[in-house]
């Protein structure tokens, strides 16, 4: 900001009584084609090309405001509609800048070079389209301060869209073209590959019936038209994906294969869209009428052969591997019950006489106690009330605030040791973490006191998991072993050695309310039935009586290595979610014992974690909410999926994660998702927003893992240097 005095001259209004020239300024650059702006009390114009000059009519002649921020000549400017605060927007080839004149605070929205603008009033987002095919999306909410939500490469998005349709076997385009690559273009027409964004316009899917939308729901989907030189695209602002594509060259009846300009308008009368096109090289102008319902219906992926649901909606089939495991468990329990009953039966034994035989008491009078008074009523009452108070926990507040208040911070190890994973117990009283120094630790929920140490692995512990009854703790490490520990005594109860698995275990957990152990190794996952012998025989404690048996194993399509695995253990569910190195997510139905669906191109890189909305025993959610799950990949943010439609419903990419696989977590209420980041912060997103709501500071290194407490609004984070941090609700 400057207050120049020597470049302005006042003529004192002496030209005539009709017209008065108040001020005169000479600019070094021509402003003949620049859009100027005036408000009730201010005038705005560019000065010397890159400087924005504001003159107030009520200010003295020498008090001018010059704002600097552009590096290219300013081409347009406009004042806002409100007086308080008074805003002005200036645009150039490098920036679009929003200035608050009252506070003189600039907000820079980078978009180069800018060709089109679109404001979504419902989601309060600003979308800019550039000549290089980039879409920049910014949040216009007051508390977000014009934060950038996402940056989208239109060409890459169209390639991903075409690849998904190709892998799903959907070939419904009128002509033969499939992929929007350079092969579609002729020689000397490489400019098309950049997909310049010529026009952005609203696309109202509520105008067409839901039956025509297929899996694309018009109720919670906000879309817009993108007009480019090679075609028209329907873009979803929630999941940042292309929903439909219309290429001009695919229709031989169209006269314009390459557009230089376009305009779009929805017609509510017949649910069609009008498109006005101007040829890029010729002089033709054409008007197109687009049947929106037919376009969306033809390009949506086919529905599932069967409806999938995380909560079990049917009984276990006799041919299911789950049925075999449960049936064997019941038969084993019955046999063990019979053995215990047989042991309790009195058997005839030899009579043994000792040197001293105690009197049988036959000579004394019989002493029979019919009733005994309760002498410890008070102590019993105190004990029972103590037990009741420890078990009776308050329900999780559904409308609670995000835990953002920094709490205790502890070091998990004396030296800088990476924390690989975190998980709370089902009652929220214990927090388990796996470390890279081969140890597993269990802290109290408040991170106070000395943690319990579980040692025995020879590699970094990449997975820890609590059983549903909280008696056992499972850990898997890079040494290729899986161990089940007694949570109370930190003693080893079950060991599965590396000779059982061809490759290291990537993921492991309890499954089907602790009836099975589910683990992934290489291209397959295994369903194991296990038995833990809790009987303590001091004479034979060196013998391991606990055992396990493989029930079934299933491999991913294409036999690619699995990178993540997830299933629900708190209630009965037949669904297992897996992710592979080929960037796919595959759904298995263990009731049928086979693969049920494949999501191709789920991320631009392999998924390193799948996180399901498992809820909590302290709160309740709608049954359909348990069908939501999150996936994350390095450099591609988080995606929210719906199992019923196998569609990505929302994309979160406001947190930096470009080189390290940071962890994610669902809140027990299902309203928030948390993730780690490389900028030493943890991020919290609301499910209904594409940008983060809170950015939690206080960490000393990359946040590697996050976990929500299932019983109270509390968030635990772990860092690359071995620190654990708690965040509490205000």
UniProtKB/TrEMBL annotation:
<dbReference type="InterPro" id="IPR011047">
    <property type="entry name" value="Quinoprotein_ADH-like_sf"/>
</dbReference>
<keyword id="KW-0853">WD repeat</keyword>
<dbReference type="InterPro" id="IPR042411">
    <property type="entry name" value="WDR27"/>
</dbReference>
<protein>
    <submittedName>
        <fullName>WD repeat domain 27</fullName>
    </submittedName>
</protein>
<dbReference type="InterPro" id="IPR001680">
    <property type="entry name" value="WD40_rpt"/>
</dbReference>
<dbReference type="Pfam" id="PF00400">
    <property type="entry name" value="WD40"/>
</dbReference>
<feature type="repeat" description="WD">
    <location>
        <begin position="696"/>
        <end position="730"/>
    </location>
</feature>
<dbReference type="InterPro" id="IPR015943">
    <property type="entry name" value="WD40/YVTN_repeat-like_dom_sf"/>
</dbReference>
<dbReference type="InterPro" id="IPR036322">
    <property type="entry name" value="WD40_repeat_dom_sf"/>
</dbReference>
<feature type="repeat" description="WD">
    <location>
        <begin position="454"/>
        <end position="495"/>
    </location>
</feature>
């Amino acid at each position: 900001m400057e207050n120049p005095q020597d470049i302005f001259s006042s003529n004192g209004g002496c030209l005539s009584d009709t017209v008065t020239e108040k001020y005169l300024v000479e600019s070094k650059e021509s402003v003949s084609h620049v859009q100027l702006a005036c408000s009730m009390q201010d005038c705005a114009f560019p000065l010397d090309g890159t400087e924005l000059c504001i003159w107030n009519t009520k200010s003295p002649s020498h008090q001018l405001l010059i704002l600097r921020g552009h590096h290219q000549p300013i081409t347009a400017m406009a004042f806002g509609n409100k007086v308080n605060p008074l805003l002005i927007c200036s645009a150039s080839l490098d920036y679009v800048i929003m200035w608050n004149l009252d506070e003189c605070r600039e907000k820079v929205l980078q978009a180069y070079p800018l060709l089109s603008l679109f404001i979504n009033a419902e989601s309060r987002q600003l979308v800019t389209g550039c000549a290089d095919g980039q879409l920049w999306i910014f949040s216009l909410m007051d508390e977000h301060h014009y934060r950038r939500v996402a940056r989208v490469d239109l060409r890459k998005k169209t390639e991903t869209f075409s690849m998904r349709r190709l892998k799903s076997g959907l070939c419904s385009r009128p002509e033969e073209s499939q992929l929007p690559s350079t092969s579609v273009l002729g020689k000397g027409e490489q400019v098309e590959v950049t997909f310049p964004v010529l026009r952005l316009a609203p696309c109202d899917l509520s105008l067409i019936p839901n039956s025509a939308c297929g899996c694309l729901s018009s109720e919670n989907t906000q879309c817009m038209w993108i007009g480019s030189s090679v075609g028209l695209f329907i873009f979803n602002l929630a999941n940042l994906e292309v929903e439909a594509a219309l290429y001009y060259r695919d229709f031989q009846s169209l006269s314009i294969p390459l557009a230089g300009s376009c305009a779009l308008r929805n017609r509510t009368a017949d649910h069609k869209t009008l498109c006005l096109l101007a040829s890029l090289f010729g002089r033709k102008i054409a008007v197109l009428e687009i049947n929106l319902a037919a376009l969306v219906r033809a390009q949506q992926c086919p529905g599932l052969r069967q409806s999938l649901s995380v909560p079990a909606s049917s009984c276990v089939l006799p041919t299911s591997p789950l049925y075999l495991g449960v049936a064997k468990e019941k038969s084993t329990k019955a046999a063990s019950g019979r053995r215990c009953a047989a042991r309790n039966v009195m058997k005839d034994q030899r009579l043994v006489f000792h040197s001293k035989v105690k009197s049988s008491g036959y000579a004394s009078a019989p002493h029979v106690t019919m009733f005994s008074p309760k002498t410890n009523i008070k102590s019993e009452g105190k004990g029972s009330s103590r037990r009741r108070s420890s078990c009776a926990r308050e329900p999780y507040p559904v409308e609670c605030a995000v835990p953002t208040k920094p709490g205790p911070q502890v070091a998990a190890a004396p030296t800088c040791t990476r924390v690989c994973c975190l998980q709370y117990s089902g009652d929220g009283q214990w927090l388990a973490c796996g470390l890279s120094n081969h140890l597993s630790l269990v802290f109290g929920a408040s991170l106070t006191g000395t943690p319990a140490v579980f040692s025995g692995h020879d590699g970094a512990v990449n997975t820890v998991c609590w059983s549903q009854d909280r008696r056992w703790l499972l850990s898997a490490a890079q040494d290729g072993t899986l161990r089940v520990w007694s949570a109370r005594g930190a003693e080893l109860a079950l060991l599965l050695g590396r000779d059982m698995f061809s490759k290291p275990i990537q993921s492991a957990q309890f499954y089907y309310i602790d009836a099975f152990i589910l683990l992934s190794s290489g291209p397959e996952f295994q369903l194991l039935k296990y038995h833990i012998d809790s009987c303590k025989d001091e004479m034979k404690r060196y013998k391991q009586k606990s055992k396990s048996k493989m029930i079934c194993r299933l491999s991913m399509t294409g036999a690619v290595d699995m990178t993540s695995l997830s299933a629900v253990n708190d209630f009965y569910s037949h669904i297992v979610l897996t992710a592979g190195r080929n960037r796919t997510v595959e759904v298995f139905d263990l009731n049928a014992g086979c693969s049920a669906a494949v999501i191709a191109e789920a991320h631009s890189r392999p998924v390193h974690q799948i996180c399901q909305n498992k809820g909590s025993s302290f709160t309740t959610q709608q049954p359909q909410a348990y069908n939501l799950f999150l996936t994350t990949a390095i450099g591609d943010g988080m995606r929210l999926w719906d199992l019923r439609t196998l569609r990505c419903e929302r994309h979160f990419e406001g947190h930096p994660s470009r080189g390290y696989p940071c962890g994610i977590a669902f809140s027990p209420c299902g309203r928030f998702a948390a993730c780690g980041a490389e900028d030493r912060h943890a991020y919290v997103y609301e499910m209904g927003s594409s940008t983060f709501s809170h950015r939690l500071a206080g960490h000393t290194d990359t946040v590697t893992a996050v976990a929500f407490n299932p019983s109270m609004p509390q968030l635990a984070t772990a860092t690359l240097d071995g620190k654990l941090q708690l965040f509490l609700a205000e």
